[in-house]
């Protein structure tokens, strides 16, 4: 039997994880969906009854970004407590199988279930409400619209999920709070480094709306664009991609180091 990954053993562990934590996950999901229902209902059932696409989009982002981040931050919570960690760490499963089950629950499964539940609640609220603004009838959220892009929501969800996934295994308590603190410190540090680099390159006043290597330089009242090559956004995504790979790798090996 392969000690790194075995499909039968993986299936057994996935089933056990579901049985052990399924009830807690369902209760947490019910609370999150309840908050979304209240958020949509207060606007859709009170006042004009108009639910704009932007408001629905904001509630959807709230659910998958904040809800997903908090959920992901707790996925390895048992391993941070020596008493609770004894049983999970003595199970006959590999670190890779443990890693994959946790990732499946916090990323694709959570995203699928949360999205389905959101649209179910959205449809329910829309069926109960009726916009009194004739020229703006209520419509269900469209994630294919330019104003409410589903791709952006998914990309940022993946980024937050991976960062919180890393924090879940590296911190033993207050996972979400500590991860959020580290995330903002690193973000501010990266922004500061970017400003310093741009200042050294330009030698003058500048403004930048990109995190890395892009700036508008102002010299004698004239504006000049300064970028790294012809695709600064490609550089940004390449850097983020590298960070994601490093975080996933770091998470896996940290999980592998966990012992009773």
From TrEMBL:
Keywords: Membrane, Transmembrane, Transmembrane helix. The keyword NAD does not apply. The chain crosses the membrane at residues 25-51, 57-79, 100-121, 150-169, 181-201, 234-253. This is ABC-2 type transport system permease protein. It comes from Mucilaginibacter ximonensis.
